[in-house]
Amino acid sequence: MTQPFPPPGFIRVESAIPGIVVYAPAPEEDEAQPAIVEFKCPQCQATTAYSVVDGGLRCAHCGYYEPPARAIVGKGAQGFEFTVETLSIASQAHGWGETRQELQCQNCNARATLPPGRLTHTCPFCGSNRVLQQAAPQDALRPRFLIPFKIEANACRPIAENWLSSSWMTPKSLKQSTVAGFMGIYLPYWTFDTVTLAEWKAEVGHQETRRRYNSATKSWESHTVTVWRWESGRVRKFFDDLLVSGTAKLSRVLLTQLQNYDTHALVAYEPQYLAGFLAQAYDVPLEKAWEEGREAMRAATRKACRDQASTSQIRNFSMALDFSEESWRYVLAPLYLAVYRYNGQPYQVMINGQTGAIAGQRPVDWNKVWLAVGASVAPGALLSLIGLLGIVLGALLPPTLAVGMVLLALGVVLLIAGGVIAFNIINKARRMGDA
Fold first, then answer.
1. What is the percent of the chain where pLDDT is above 70?
2. Residues paired with residue 198 on neighbouring β-strands, in sequence order
């Protein structure tokens, strides 16, 4: 019986030797890899984009509209336990489920994916024009859920302009600046659910008033002492959708200010939600994000334990902590990102694509800051100086001694208060510029 040639499952491959035909086993097809989807308008074949207003796909060329495919799942979004089995199940779905281009910045090394047919030569993270475009890899874990955009791009500019002029610390000329070119981008987030159970023990201080006899004055006097007593308790705390950023390319300080996402709006991931928007795959792996999440949960539980104590004076505090019912999700959250320049320096602005909350970097007019610092400490310093002068003159004019001591005491109080205000002003200015 004649065997077929080549045998089933073999294909012809390129040979390194001329005149020699070589056959090799055909590569196995990845059954878990989904079909690549391109969003083309069925009427005019133009690229469609996600509509923020109504949540569907809308063609800007002919007006064709396709309603959203999935309903909101919110808190019912499936979570995964931390087991080998569930991690394996989750890792079967990779990529974006559509053809996308990857934008790689040669300045800050950030990466973002672009929708089909979109070309850009500017990095959304740092504003650099040193970028490369290539086919987006499909090896990252696919998001299971996302929060759709609710804020339209044209609403970002007035939000940013109001924010630029909202602080007295910024230069006056900044109010005439405009922030344009906001790019909508889906950022990666890990969400964690867990229950913490903590047992704590500490010495807690209580203030008590006691009387003692003063033999020098031959009288009874009252004084306050701190009495330390051991206390203990138990705290059970539930964490629901604790958000941990999946990217290290953006300021954690700014992202924390914008993480007021409402996870009740979660929908099952579908590639059409990304139509017209940039998206970023995670660069912070699940294990590292979970460590960060556990630290945040541990700190919150520790605070709950300390709040359970009868007073705020605590020493020798100890806590035994257990985690249970742990689960995770990989989701995308909407953000508008823009980079503007002032005096040649780049500054980053972010707007929450669901709530419209804004955070960013602003230049600081340090001349204004130092004037405010001087105004805060000047009254106390001046009053203290007058009080010292009165005490010195008290040797010649005894009545001025008592007045000088009163003025000095009042001046010291005002100086301390002014120092606290000045410290807060400087810290706020530094945070504004360094965020």
1. 69
2. 235, 321
Element (H, E) at 412: helix 399-434
What global pTM score does this model have? 0.71
CA dist., res. 257 & res. 309, Å (int): 30
The token duo for 41 is 């308008």
Phi, psi torsion values for 70, nearest 5 degrees? -125, 150
DSSP code string of 260-303: ---GGG-EE--GGGGTTSEE---SS-HHHHHHHHHHHHHHHHHH
Q: Output 8 or 404, whichever has higher pLDDT.
A: 404
**Domain limits, the chain:** 366-434
pLDDT in tens, 53-64: 555 666 656 666
CB 323, CB 170: distance < 8 Å = no
Q: Is 394 exposed, middle or buried (0-12, 13-18, 19+ CB in 10 A)?
A: middle
Preceding omega of 8 cis (within 30 degrees of 0): no
Contact status, residue 22 vs residue 33, Cβ threshold 8 Å: no
Task: Report DSSP state, residue 90.
Answer: H
d(CA 281, CA 111): 8
Q: How far apart are CA 379 and CA 414, in angstroms?
A: 7
Distance of CA 102 to the CA centre of its chain: 23
Task: Give the pair of three-digit tokens for residue 210.
Answer: 């006691």
The rounded distance, in Å, linking the Cα atoms of 175 and 367 is 17
Q: Tell me the pLDDT tens digit for each residue of 140-158.
A: 778 889 999 999 988 998 8
